[in-house]
Amino acid sequence: xxxxxxxxxxxxxxxxxxxxxxxxxxxxxxxxxxxxxxxxxxxxxxxxxxxxxxxxxxxxxxxxxxxxxxxxxxxxxxxxxxxxxxxxxxxxxxxxxxxxxxxxxxxxxxxxxxxxxxxxxxxxxxxxxxxxxxxxxxxxxxxxxxxxxxxxxxxxxxxxxxxxxxxxxxxxxxxxxxxxxxxxxxxxxxxxxxxxxxxxxxxxxxxxxxxxxxxxxxxxxxxxxxxxxxxxxxxxxxxxxxxxxxxxxxxxxxxxxxxxxxxxxxxxxxxxxxxxxxxxxxxxxxxxxxxxxxxxxxxxxxxxxxxxxxxxxxxxxxxxxxxx
Length: 324
Fold this sequence. Notes:
324 residues, single chain, 6-stranded parallel sheet, alpha/beta
């Protein structure tokens, strides 16, 4: 295994001693994980904070062996400082974004994380480390769903949750793919963000007459719809998807949407693969692209960062872990 002599044996991590509320995330000193043959060791500089982290913290999302202390954190950006013997795509020193969701060797709320090389990609050209730290899961989730929708040039897309983490990335990817995007956002700041990112039309889901505006936007019906939330208004809006159209949603939308007769319903998760991340980077690098960072917290304040997700914000919340 190629490595540098500067890898410490121990690291700081915000970890759970037991499942529960945000206060259960406390500072631990834990061993730096060993690097397997198909894995890389990343020195984490910025870690993303997502609702999936909060669900895992509460014990609602558990897909691997439960051992405490349990280091959370589903995504990050940083610098590769060691690579496994079978890894050929990356070198020590590469700056990357990575997915560590449900990672057997621990998450990214830590100074270092070991992840499979298949869940890692170079930071897109022109993107900051801070923005890249919040990109991986939201980017993978957005793109997997747009792929499931078979979204293409000229399609009309109704996008619910357009000012959130996944939503504001999906909006930009959809525009790059040539779709016309009707973005339903949250609040005046959410509408402004969607407008700045190129939405063909952006409305406030809580204040505007969404159905009236949507009918005017797509009089013949929408070709596709992608929702990141559910509720009576969201469900009613699916009647505006034309016959033969498609509705998509990711894991975590509960209860699941119901498609009208003649409309296909698809579900796609945001698990990273080499192919999906490569496609994501390629689309991002085609033009202007922004991961909007709402707030940045220090690693030790991750409980506060998770609480911030329960309040109104647009874009993405991240943690600053190691300084450059």
